[in-house]
Design goal:
- This protein has one domain: Up-down Bundle (Methane Monooxygenase Hydroxylase, Chain G, domain 1).
- It is built from three helices and no strands.
- By secondary structure, it is mostly helical.
- Helix 1 packs antiparallel against helix 2.
- 81% of the residues lie in helices and 0% in strands.
- Belongs to the FrmR/RcnR family.
- InterPro entries: Metal_Tscrpt_repr, Metal_Tscrpt_repr_sf.
Length: 80
């Protein structure tokens, strides 16, 4: 969360300071990347807790683990 807060502060200072539009766009892109990364982490955690946790660790099949990993990869690719 500190990362987001700092990036928002930089963006605010950029806009208020009248810095070039290209720099403001760069800061917006960095903030979007940080938010998308956090979304991917939350979704990955949710998938792993929802699909794998209810089962005993020994019962989590390679297929289930592979499906989770494939889904996480897809989400991360989409959010880039």
């Amino acid at each position: 969360m500190c990362r987001f807060r700092r990036q928002v502060q930089v963006l605010e200072a950029t806009i208020e300071g009248g810095v070039s539009c290209s720099y403001a766009r760069q800061q917006l892109s960095a903030l979007r990347g940080a938010v998308n990364g956090m979304i991917a982490e939350v979704l990955e955690s949710h998938l792993r807790e929802t699909l794998a946790q209810p089962m005993q660790h020994d019962d989590v099949t390679q297929s289930t683990e592979s499906s989770i990993n494939d889904t996480v990869t897809l989400i991360r690719t989409y959010l880039k």
